[in-house]
Automatic annotation (TrEMBL):
Record lineage: Bacteria, Bacillati, Cyanobacteriota, Cyanophyceae, Leptolyngbyales
BP-aspect Gene Ontology terms: UMP salvage; uracil salvage
Molecular function via GO: GTP binding; uracil phosphoribosyltransferase activity
Pathway named in the protein's UniProt entry: Pyrimidine metabolism; UMP biosynthesis via salvage pathway; UMP from uracil: step 1/1
Pfam families documented for this protein: UPRTase
Enzyme Commission number(s): 2.4.2.9
Protein role: Catalyzes the conversion of uracil and 5-phospho-alpha-D-ribose 1-diphosphate (PRPP) to UMP and diphosphate.
Stated name of the protein: Uracil phosphoribosyltransferase
Cofactor(s) demanded: Mg(2+)
Length: 216
């Protein structure tokens, strides 16, 4: 069986609405942050529906026994925000995954070469091979940052098929690179945009997600 990277763009009016707010250049930082939180929430909701581990059991209602499904607390669930901009999606993701462990990683792109460099890595030395990892990263542009982040996970024992990335705007360049390197990966995005400009920014995109989130 050949695996193929899957990119889901959920056709949900709340996702489209908050994407439009985030894209608009006249949206102030406070509202931009709200839009990103909402996108984090709804993209997480879509991403975890067949990913969150469950256990089937039986419970007693006040009237009769009933089959029941619970979240399986024995399977580790991790959220990994890629700083800085990935923090903007974290609150929404954490609201739906309150028991997940949060492992931060920080990357910054060199503005000329567009090469990412890692300045913070709070990942443990090893992950349980069953670990589900949700990456929050609003922009997949050249794909350099997300590929480097995936490498940090897989070298610690994470199965790429158990990783989901939630992203706001993704470019075809990043999708091609991620597909070649991690064909079993699943991505949930608000939009797939046309491409990149000469500075490596996604067009039409939403500008610099980190700067707009933190008002820098
Ligand atoms: O796919 P790529 O070409 O690697 O680009 C995507 C990365 O670029 C931006 O980070 P930036 O370096 O601006 O850091 P920031 O999040 O701190 O603003 C963005 O937040 C992504 O992490
Ligand atoms: O368009 C882009 C590309 C990379 N990082 C951003 O914040 N925006
Ligand atoms: Mg930035």
């Amino acid at each position: 069986m050949t695996l193929q990277l899957r990119v889901y763009v959920p056709p949900h009016p709340l996702i489209q609405h908050w994407l439009a707010v985030a894209r608009d250049a006249s949206t102030p930082s406070t509202l931009f942050r709200s839009a990103m939180t909402e996108l984090g929430r709804w993209l997480t909701y879509e991403a975890i529906r067949d990913w969150l581990p469950i256990q089937e059991t039986t419970i007693d209602t006040p009237l009769a026994p009933s089959p029941a499904t619970f979240i399986d607390p024995t399977v580790p669930v991790v959220v990994m925000p890629i700083l800085r901009a990935g923090l903007a999606l974290l609150d929404g993701a954490q609201a739906l995954l309150p028991l997940a462990s949060i492992y931060h990683i920080g990357f910054v792109r060199n503005e000329e070469t567009l090469e990412p460099s890692c300045y913070l890595n709070k990942l443990p030395a090893k992950f349980d091979p069953q670990t589900r990892v949700l990456i929050t990263e609003p922009m997949l542009a050249t794909g350099g940052t997300s590929i480097a982040a995936m490498a940090e996970l897989t070298q610690r024992g994470v199965d790429p098929a158990l990783v989901r990335i939630i992203s706001v705007v993704v470019a075809p360049t990043a999708l091609q690179k991620l597909s070649a390197a991690y064909p079993s990966l699943n991505i949930y995005a608000a939009a797939i945009d046309e491409g990149l400009n000469e500075k490596g920014f996604i067009v039409p995109g939403l500008g610099d997600a980190g700067d707009r989130t933190f008002g820098t």
